[in-house]
Specification:
It contains nine helices and no strands. With 194 residues, it is mainly α. Helix 1 packs across helix 2, helix 1 packs across helix 4 and helix 4 runs parallel beside helix 7. The chain is elongated. The N and C termini lie far apart (58 Å).
Amino acid sequence: MAVSKTRNMLVDVARQLFAKNGFENTTMNDIALASERGRRTLYTYFKSKEEVYYAVIQIELERLFQRMEEVARKNLTPEEKIVQLIIAHLSVVKEAVFRNGNLRAEFFREIWKVESVRRDFDRMEISLFRRVLNEGVDKGDFEVTNVRLTAEIMHYCLKGCEVPFIFGRYTARGIDELLPVVRNMVHRHFKIER
């Protein structure tokens, strides 16, 4: 098995154990046994359980960014790309949290751990928003005077929406109800009327 495949398999086994038992109740030995690899193999890739946990978070963030990158490459108007980026972000974050079962509470209780791993993702997401905003400005669809700042504000606003969305604190019953509201907000704030 290739190095990256072994590492990814160990991370996936750890994610499943963390989801089932929680971070605190999972040991490195549990991960080694469940992966059918020895502790030596596990320690070849990871120095500690915390390092494995960070790898789990990193893979979830990579999934999120891949999904957003797919949206940005679609043949859509810049306005619709922004809408779909927002929806993709919220959807994938919610999927990741619920896929990870018992780890869910720890994501929120230990948010500083998540934040330390998330810095690179945050920069990449802001860059993605900048790219789509610039595309809209270049095409004459958007009137945005400060693209850099607008992208940062969009990112941090969206980040602030994650927890309420995950816990169902919005009155929207799902994405289908949220989509027209997001579309309307984006249209009103960026679209140049002709």
